[in-house]
UniProtKB/TrEMBL annotation:
GO MF annotation terms: DNA binding
Organism name: Candidatus Accumulibacter adjunctus
Name of the protein described by the UniProt record: Cytoskeleton protein RodZ
Keyword Transmembrane assigned: yes
Region: Disordered, residue numbers: 1-27, 179-203
Pfam families noted in UniProt: HTH_25 (PF13413), RodZ_C (PF13464)
Residue span, HTH cro/C1-type domain: 36-68
Transmembrane segments: 134-154
Gene: rodZ
Superkingdom of this protein's organism: Bacteria
Organism placement in taxonomy: Bacteria, Pseudomonadati, Pseudomonadota, Betaproteobacteria, Candidatus Accumulibacter
Amino acid sequence: MNEQGILPLPPEERPAATGTAGEPSALAAGGVGQQLRAAREERGLSLAEVAQSLKLGQGQVAALENEEWQLLPGNTMIRGFVRNYARLFDLDVEQLMRGLDAARLQQKPQLAASAGTSATLPSPSGRRAERRDYLAVVGGLLLLALAVLVYFFAPLKEWQERLIEMIESRSVAPQVQRAQPAPALPTAADSAPRVAPAESVTSVSPPNATVLAAAASPSAAVAAAGGGDLRLSFAQSAWIEVRDAMGHLVVSGMMPAGSQREVGGQAPFSLVIGNATQVTLHHRGRVIDLAPHSKGDVARLTVE
């Protein structure tokens, strides 16, 4: 009995593999999904029961059996799914891995040929993706150029005035602190001439207020900049991939059940979420429904 509580098939009842040693059989090369489905049906198990044992979505299990690799998240994850499925029914893992590699190699030339025939007529979705990437690169370059222009060509007079204000505010602060002990003197005659310094104290308060307001503005800008962060909660283990506006990979991997993951960076974010029905996505205090963006229990969406 394996870890999932399912008895393995006796050796004499297992499907016999054909073909010579050192190369996958015809069934393994072209029918990895058929082998997995046959093993499940021999045990009388449903897709839902196998999905629960493997901690996967039911759609992902169906995609494995139908060999719809494009619905699954990446070659590494596909190999892990097939390996776990094989171990669940005590199948020959290495044979299935060879069959999977052969099946994937057979699909690649077909994909390349189809890409060559459609090169003259790119699909609308491909054109939109290329245009989005192009606009993101151009926008980043424009922002960089603008920052350089502001840094090098901003009026020197404005910078000098700000520097003078900062120096004056720092020099006024010690004078204010020295003027405060004046009311502690006991005689009324001595306290009377000290009214004028008190007035000078009140007169310098507006520059301090200006400096404090100026100092507070960067922190407010930082808080506003952090408003685009994402938070993902996982009721069950799920695979995620998150990329920022520049296409850089921010997060990729399997997240454990009961965990949370916060993601920051430059919006918009492009997300691919496996086992999407067990994942909750929060953005700026609201929950984003993944159902409209899901296909085969894998959600693909862009969050602004």
